[in-house]
Design goal:
489 residues, alpha/beta, Rossmann fold, 2 domains, five-stranded parallel beta sheet, elongated
């Protein structure tokens, strides 16, 4: 893109002044429509060091109510961020509906820097680019406007600006190691930026190259690109988008009705195995931390199937400093106003730690699907989006273990009645549990489809027969230990 790019001719001073005034007025007006349309807007400002990215952002946001935007300078990842997936710190910044998020440098800058410094292999680069493409497509499919700007200056201009900044004590701090590295390897960086833009540009999230030699001209180009994107977004609104086909290999799974629920274990055998398995899991947890392997254990299942007791037997073997259990309820307003996977991205563990989810992102294709909390197009797209999410975690190095805890309707009714009639257990039963029970057949159909479409080779489902809760607990421990041993071998 940079190689073939021909800059637009800079307008005369009077025209530049008039167009700037018009663009600023448009943005002032459009910010209200952004709020009315509940449109989340991400503006990514990439480009050469000293090209004036921060200055341009500062001038653009003067036209937006401060309550409607945030600005993040995405410098080199912190030690904590380096222990999370590559996209973690960017997804964590996505805005709520009706608000703007400006990123001063983002994923392309990080990829190019790591590529130049030899931290990223050819294979690693391809994985990163694929991750970015998936993320950007998911965001735009879910109603986000993504405007990507690249501020371009020549090698000579960059060197001059760097030298000028270094001359003043108050500005020399703005020249980073990365700025200097870019200028000393300008041609190689230009080649890497060019390729990355070509690999991550799309019709939904194209790159706009900004001629940044003149600051006011750069400001105008950025404003007009942003206003143009907003105009298109307002026209398109939130229509249905194509449902992508799954590209990941799947593991064949049985229907829930085919699962043998007669499995059981004696009390004596249970106590013996529980002690042995928990001791082994405790050993593995220490090795996980030492080798910095992240683990994600996801629990879904019928109400009253025994998920809580199952989780308790897993955590009973773990160092409490190295795990966290996330009970997932209905999304809070700030979560509901973002991409549905956002609240799970922000709960991911660091390397060497374990995150256990009691209910998960699969609510999209169960509760949200059946209760009408999202459109048919939304939940049909979610199968592929979830597979992509789990693929991202797998490529990061996470062990992903997914449990469906299975019982039959009679067992559930028996446990519901026991909860209802036992004072210390009544908090466990709600009107919603009884309502969901009335939709058992619909939920079973949805769960069968969910398991069939999302049991991938890198994140397969494990169905736990739980009419005998003790049997289910032992099976879960065995599976967790087996998967951890495989990852650590």
């Amino acid at each position: 893109m940079l190689k073939k790019w021909v800059p637009a001719e800079k307008p005369e001073e009077q025209e530049l002044k008039e167009r700037l005034k018009e663009a600023e007025k448009k943005l002032e007006k459009y910010q209200i429509q952004v709020k009315e349309h509940r449109l989340p807007v991400i503006v990514v400002v990439e480009g050469w060091g000293a090209a004036g990215k921060g200055s341009a952002i500062g001038k653009i946001i003067r036209n937006i109510d401060p309550r409607f935007f945030r600005v993040a300078a995405m410098e080199e990842a912190t030690e904590d961020e380096k222990r999370r997936p590559f996209l973690y710190r960017y997804v964590a910044r996505i805005p709520q509906e009706g608000k703007f998020e400006f990123l001063d440098s983002a994923w392309m800058d990080e990829i190019v820097r790591q590529r130049l410094e030899g931290e990223l292999s050819d294979k690693g680069y391809e994985q990163r680019v694929e991750s970015v493409r998936r993320m950007e497509r998911q965001l735009t499919d879910n109603g986000y406007l993504l405007v990507k700007l690249f501020f371009h200056i020549s090698e000579k201009e960059q060197k001059k600006r760097i030298e000028n900044l270094k001359k003043q004590k108050d500005t020399e701090w703005r020249v980073s190691r990365w700025d200097k590295l870019q200028n000393s390897h300008y041609d190689r960086c230009a080649e890497l930026f060019d390729r990355c833009m070509a690999d991550t540009g799309s019709s939904n999230a194209p790159w706009y190259i900004v001629d940044a030699k003149d600051s006011r001209w750069a400001q105008l180009q950025a404003l007009e690109a942003l206003c143009g994107g907003l105009e298109v977004a307002f026209q398109n609104s939130r229509g249905a988008v194509p449902v992508p086909q799954n590209v990941f290999p799947l593991v064949k799974m049985p229907l829930l009705s085919q699962v043998d629920l007669s499995c059981s274990i004696s009390d004596e055998e249970y106590k013996k195995e529980l002690k042995e398995l928990q001791a082994r899991l405790s050993e593995l947890h220490n090795r996980l931390y030492r080798k910095k392997v992240p683990v994600i254990i996801a629990y879904e299942g019928w109400d009253a199937a025994g998920k809580g007791g199952n989780i308790k037997r897993i955590t009973g073997a773990l160092d409490p400093r190295g795990y966290e259990v996330h009970p997932i309820a209905s999304p809070e307003p700030k979560e509901k106003a973002r991409h549905y996977l956002w609240r799970f991205w922000t709960r991911l563990p660091k390397t060497g730690h374990i995150a256990i989810f009691d209910r998960t992102w699969y609510g999209r294709v169960m509760v949200e699907r059946l209760e009408g909390f999202c459109s048919e197009n939304d939940w049909k797209r979610a199968y592929n989006e979830i597979n992509e999410f789990e693929k991202e975690l797998s490529e990061w190095g996470a062990v992903i273990i997914k449990f469906w805890v299975q019982i039959d309707k009679d067992t559930q009714l028996e446990r519901f009645n026991e909860r209802q009639n036992t004072p210390e257990k009544q908090w466990k039963i709600t009107d919603e549990d009884w309502r969901n029970r009335e939709k058992w057949d619909q939920y079973e159909e949805a769960v069968n489809e969910m398991i069939r479409k999302t049991s991938t080779e890198f994140a397969p489902w494990h169905i736990l027969p739980s009419v005998d809760k003790k049997y289910a607990r032992i099976q879960a421990l065995r599976i967790v230990i087996r998967e951890l041993e495989k990852a650590l071998s």
